[in-house]
Amino acid sequence: MSAVELVIVIVGMTAITLLTRGFFFLQRSQLPVPAWLTEGLRYAPLAAMVAIVAPEIVMSQGQLIGTWKDARLYGAAAATAWFFWRRDMFGTIVAGMAVLLALRLALGW
Amino acid sequence: MTERSHAAPALWRHPEFRRGAREMTGVALGISAWGVVAGVAMANSSLGAFWAVVMSLVVFSGTGQIASLPLITGGAPLWVIWAAVVCVNLRFVIFSLQWRPYWVHLPLRWRLTVAYFCADLNYFTFVRRFPKPEPAPEQWPYFWGGMAVNWGSWQLSSLLGIALANHVPPQWGLSFAGTTALLALTYTMVSDRATWLAAAVAACAAVAAFALPLRLNVLVAIAAAVAVGVVLDHVAPKPRRAEVAR
Question: Taking CB atoms and an 8 Å limit, are B89 and A80 in contact across chains?
Answer without folding.
Answer: no
